[in-house]
Amino acid sequence: MPGDIIAWGEGDGEKVPLLSVDDGKIETQFDWEQWKQFILLESYTRQTAPFYARLPFHYHYVPERVRSLALKFLLALNKNKGTQPTDFPGHPIEQGFELLHYLYCNNGGTASWESSVSGQIFLTHDIDTRGGFEWALKTAAREKKYGFRSLWNVVGNLYKIDYDALDELRKDGFEIGLHGYNHDNKDAFLSEDALRKRFDRCKPLIERYGMKSYRSPSWLRTPMLFDVLKDYISTDFSRLDSDILCPGGQGGCLWTKGFEYGGLLQIPSTVPYEYPLFVGYKPDQLLNFWTPKLKWLRKINGNIVVNTHPDTGYSGNQAMLDSYEQLLIYLNDN
Fold first, then answer.
1. Which residue, of 56, 96, 128, 290, has the greatest Cβ tally within 10 A?
2. Tell me, what's the pLDDT at 1?
3. Average pLDDT of the residues in 289-293
């Protein structure tokens, strides 16, 4: 029998002891290392290629307004099915794994897999279209105003890259990263050889800007993608701590700090800032939506990893730029 039980789980409708303390020593009722890997690598879920990744043409040929409406419909459908906010994973905060880890470590357990990347702010942006470059510079100007520098991820082979804009960003101390090959959402589901060919074609861009960071288009991610990615990039932002956004399926690594695995530093994204727009919120309401999570991340020493897109229909407009500035003011003051 376990000693003093300090954490319970639930299985098949019954309470199950998870952590206990016996003679001052932490005891687990499961294999901790195996379980944490199962969670962090999202082995409890499986992503599949979205239907539009199988189209004979690039899905960006579908008007952006139509794609935005489709996303709103899918999120509303998930909500009606009860997948948010009470079902697993909780959104925008899923604290189960964080809480169990806290109890484990505060009672003598060790977690050697945890990296030192915690309690930091990462402002990241994915440029999905050529038009995003104009708003990228406007957004960067607001960030500079408050002393921030951010990461700008560009698609390797989709649009005509505005090298002047990227050079200006780089000169001002911003980082340039990679956002997939052509954003057709096929990368994560290709064979190893096909995926390597795509990354090889991006090498000149990677080398030009000394790219170290990557985020997968549409948050799509598979073990194959990460296995190949490590040979080109050192830091990945493709995972979310709590994911109800990815068209490949819901999940998330349930963790808000960086962790190293398979030759990659993985930094989960924790604040997909534009998400509330697709469930009925207005730009001037976004900071209020995210404030509880921002406070929670500070409290648990999690990373605040913000993601936006400077493209039409997302953050490429004045209302969203003003909303984003309110977030910058909050982060600067808190």
1. 128
2. 53
3. 98
User: Quick one: which of 168, 242, 166 has its CA closest to 208?
Assistant: 166
| pLDDT score, position 262 | 86
What is the per-residue pLDDT for 152? 98
Strands 264-266 and 259-261, how do they pair?
A: antiparallel
Question: Burial code of 237-272, b = ≥16 C-beta within 10 A, e = fewer?
Answer: bbbbbbbbbbbbebbbbbbbbbbeeeebbbbbbbbb
Q: Is 11 within a domain?
A: no
CB 217 within 8 Å of CB 183: yes
Percent of the chain with pLDDT over 90: 66
Radius of gyration of the chain measured on its C-alpha atoms: 20
Lookup: tokens for 297: 């991340």
What CATH number does the domain containing 175 carry?
3.20.20.370
| Maximum C-alpha span of the chain | 66
Separation of alpha carbons 104 and 109, rounded Å: 5
